[in-house]
Amino acid sequence: KLIKYFATSKLQSRLGEFGQYCPVSLAKKGELVDCSVTSSLQSAAEFRGHYYKMASQAELNEFLNAPELYVPPLAPHPLPSPDMLPKKLTMAEVKALFPKKAEMQGYCPVTYLDGKQRYEALVPGTIEYAVEYQDKLYIFESEEKLQKFMRLPEKYWNQKLPHKLPPIKEPVLLTALPLTGYLEQGIATALIKAMNEVGCLKPKFPFLSVKKTALLFVAYHLKAYNPRSSEYVRKKYKRKLEQFIDHCDLIPYLGTKMTRKYKEPQNRPIDFDHKLQMFLCLKDVDPTSG
């Protein structure tokens, strides 16, 4: 028997009974390992005038040690006919099959079986990872799951779904949600932080209601800490928020420093007159202007 490495140009015309599938993987594990995905001939060999490609160096070594065990008549598993081999599809090829529907209502057969066919293992596939097998269409959760199916289609193809299925999840644009849902999905974390801070500070802007003060505080806080805004915008609103808080602090300050009896200017706190004047000037000022 003669085993040797060979030139690339001769490969197609002299492929053995297994085409570009690894005979060792098929014989030992019953796996269909398609070696055509690589043009490398590093793991290929010739035996009895035919060429064979192996999945890796390990399989090549096994083939070289006893090649007759992996080819007819001693090979335990023949390669299925071309129409019985799984075929990976592009997204365009999947769309061209319309109106053919994916088997298992689009759930990933590999995830389901590997998950012991539990309810939580019902995970939808995507047409990005699709295979045609026995004239049926299957879609998978990931490339890894697709490759598992390609190797062992007989293991995964013929499954029955349970009667109870998860609700269908349709992708929803945030802007299509009702207001409450939009807030929950879009700005929940930022809103919680802002409301927590306003709850701790309990600010009251001069001449504004508590409700309006709280609303303005939350608005400034959201603007100041919006990760999608530019650094310039965030800094701008952080300054506005700080100024807003300073103005709110005037009320508790004046409340503690102001007495019922008149005090001469020299007996007042050094910044009292300035802060009192600032407070009075805010009477007709819109805090959102400027």
From TrEMBL:
<keyword id="KW-0970">Cilium biogenesis/degradation</keyword>
<dbReference type="GO" id="GO:1901317">
    <property type="term" value="P:regulation of flagellated sperm motility"/>
</dbReference>
<protein>
    <recommendedName>
        <fullName>Cilia- and flagella-associated protein 206</fullName>
    </recommendedName>
</protein>
<keyword id="KW-0206">Cytoskeleton</keyword>
<keyword id="KW-0969">Cilium</keyword>
<dbReference type="GO" id="GO:0007288">
    <property type="term" value="P:sperm axoneme assembly"/>
</dbReference>
<comment type="similarity">
    <text>Belongs to the CFAP206 family.</text>
</comment>
<keyword id="KW-0966">Cell projection</keyword>
<comment type="function">
    <text>Essential for sperm motility and is involved in the regulation of the beating frequency of motile cilia on the epithelial cells of the respiratory tract. Required for the establishment of radial spokes in sperm flagella.</text>
</comment>
<keyword id="KW-0963">Cytoplasm</keyword>
<dbReference type="GO" id="GO:0036064">
    <property type="term" value="C:ciliary basal body"/>
</dbReference>
<dbReference type="GO" id="GO:0003356">
    <property type="term" value="P:regulation of cilium beat frequency"/>
</dbReference>
<dbReference type="InterPro" id="IPR021897">
    <property type="entry name" value="FAP206"/>
</dbReference>
<dbReference type="GO" id="GO:0005930">
    <property type="term" value="C:axoneme"/>
</dbReference>
